[in-house]
Amino acid sequence: MRWLTLTDIKAQLRIESDFTQEDTLLTMYGDSAEEFVLNYLQRTEAELKAMNTVDPTKVPKPIIHASLMLVDLFYQQRSPITMQNLYLIPYGFDALVSNYRKGTYSSVDEEEG
User: Quick count: other Cβ atoms within 10 Å of Cβ 113?
Assistant: First the structure.
C-alpha cells in the first residue's frame, strides 16, 4: 500500500489490531482503494503529494479518508454487484476527492499549464 496502513484500515473497520486472519484481504482492499483513487482522480501519487500544502511528502488527508471509505465499502460489500445490490460510491467520497481530480480547479494544474 502506498499511503494506507493496515493499522489505519483496522481502525476504520473497528477490527482489533491483534486479529490478523484477514490481513491479506485487508491489504488487497487497501491496494485496490488506492489504485481506484489514482485512476478516478487521473493523478499520480506524486501529483497528489504536491497538492498537499501542509506536508508535500504525504498525500492530502482527504485522499486518505476517502481511501479508507472505499476499503470499508469493499469490506462490507463482498458480493458481486448486480442491479439488485448496486451501491454507489458514497457521496462523502466524492466530496473529499473532487477538488483533486484532473479537470477541476487546482493550483497544481495552474502551475503546470
Answer: 5
CB 64 within 8 A of CB 48: no
- For residue 107, the number of C-alpha atoms closer than 13 Å in the C-beta half-sphere is 6
User: Exposed, middle or buried, 106 (CB in 10 Å: 0-12/13-18/19+)?
Assistant: middle
- Which pLDDT value is given to residue 107? 47
Mean pLDDT of 67-79: 90
Helix, strand or coil, per DSSP, at residue 105? coil
Phi, psi (degrees; rounded to nearest 5) at 22: -110, 15
pLDDT at res. 104? 60
How high is the pLDDT of residue 82? 58
**Helix, strand, coil distribution of the chain in percent, nearest 5:** 60, 0, 40
